[in-house]
Amino acid sequence: MPTGVHLRDARQQLFDAAERVLLRAGPNGLTSRAVTDEAGCAKGVLHRHFADFDGFLTALVLDRAARLEAQGEALRASAGGGTVVANLTGALTTLFGPVPVAILPLVTFRDELRARLRRERAGGGMAILAEMTTAIAAYLADERELGRIAAEADIDSLTLSLVGGGHLLFTDRDAGPPTTSAVEKFVASVISDSVRRRPV
C-alpha cells in the first residue's frame, strides 16, 4: 500500500495543507488525517516532524503569526504617505485575511493549543491578534510622531478599537469579507477625532 509522496520541505507543505483544510472545512475539520491527506503523504510524516498534533498546530500558528510581522513592517513603512485612513484600511484588510481569521477560532477553542502558545512566547495564546496589535500600535505611534495623528491621541485605545472592531468586522466568514468602503468607514469613525487635518 503506498504511503504517499515524498515531501521536500515537509513542514511547510504540511502547514500549507493545514491552511487549505482550515479554509475549506473550518477548525472542526482540521485533523491530522485531513492534513496528511491534503498534503498527499503518510500520516507518519507529520509525527516525524512534530511530537503530536497540538505541537504541529502550535508551529503552524507561530509560522502564520510571523508572516503578519512582515505585513506590520509594510504598514509602518507607509507612515507619512497616502492617508492614515487608507493605510489602516489596507492594513486591516490584509491582517484580517482569510487565514488569520480562520486561525483565531482554532486557537480560541483548543485549550492545549493556547497553553502551548503561551509557553512559546509572551502573549502567545493569541499570537495572531498580538501581531496585529503590535503592527497597528507601532504605525499609529509613527504617524503621531510625524504629526498626522494628534499628539494627545491615546494610541492604546485606538489600537484596541481598530483590532477589536476589525476582528468583529471580518469574522463573519459566511457572508464573506466586508467591502473596502465598509472597512474605510469603520476606520474613519474610529480615528476621526485623532487625525490631524492640514489647514485649508
What is the average of the pLDDT values?
A: 88
Task: Please trace the helix and strand order, writing H or E for each element.
Answer: HHHHHHHHHH
Uncertain spans: 1-7
Helical content stands at 55-70%
Query: How far is the N terminus from the C terminus?
Result: 75 Å
Q: How many strands, what sense, and barrel or not for the largest sheet?
A: none
Structurally, the number of domains stands at 2
3D shape: elongated
β-strand amount: under 5%
Rg, alpha carbons: 19 Å
Structural class: mainly alpha
How many beta-strand elements? Answer: 0
**Tally of helical runs:** 10
Task: Give the secondary structure arrangement, pairings included.
Elements: H1 10-25, H2 32-39, H3 43-49, H4 53-77, H5 84-95, H6 98-109, H7 111-120, H8 127-145, H9 155-170, H10 180-191
Summarize the structure.
The chain is mainly α and 200 residues long.
Q: Which features characterize this protein?
A:
single chain, 200 residues, mainly alpha, Arc Repressor Mutant, subunit A, 10 helices, elongated, disordered N terminus
